[in-house]
């Protein structure tokens, strides 16, 4: 999970530029294990539009989900605060219909562009004003667009994250078309068994 803080660190002070080279070593980051990769690819087929479209991947990290979306025919724009992550994403998707930008996921530098889907994994919980970010992301969608959020609450001693019920409450004023998909019970997504809260929310707009 990458961060969108202005100094390139997360709430615990992690320097993601420094961690970029090893970021893909986590099974659900690099998706190098064929089983993990296939599990995420299957989920993206369910979450993203059936027809090829324009997908904005916010907090894209090294571009692993961007690559899956591109392989499914989508045109991808990725945004991440970390220049090192963005450079790795560009290398990973070289030759594909993809553009990567260095910038803040909460205020994507996309110059008024609109998208068929906005994909955000493990970013919303780091933002100081998640409700405002959700409104901005909604405004980046074309009619019929969708917002795909992969979030959770990680850890048991000092848990961090955003619970699904809080996220759906934040979305309630924006759209009634919200689906929650629980992900904790699918070890193929994470490369191991997990016992914390992990989920995806797909919110649709007319």
UniProtKB/TrEMBL annotation:
<keyword id="KW-0489">Methyltransferase</keyword>
<dbReference type="InterPro" id="IPR013216">
    <property type="entry name" value="Methyltransf_11"/>
</dbReference>
<dbReference type="GO" id="GO:0008168">
    <property type="term" value="F:methyltransferase activity"/>
</dbReference>
<keyword id="KW-0949">S-adenosyl-L-methionine</keyword>
<dbReference type="Pfam" id="PF08241">
    <property type="entry name" value="Methyltransf_11"/>
</dbReference>
<keyword id="KW-0808">Transferase</keyword>
<protein>
    <submittedName>
        <fullName>Class I SAM-dependent methyltransferase</fullName>
    </submittedName>
</protein>
<dbReference type="InterPro" id="IPR029063">
    <property type="entry name" value="SAM-dependent_MTases_sf"/>
</dbReference>
<feature type="domain" description="Methyltransferase type 11">
    <location>
        <begin position="56"/>
        <end position="149"/>
    </location>
</feature>
<dbReference type="GO" id="GO:0032259">
    <property type="term" value="P:methylation"/>
</dbReference>
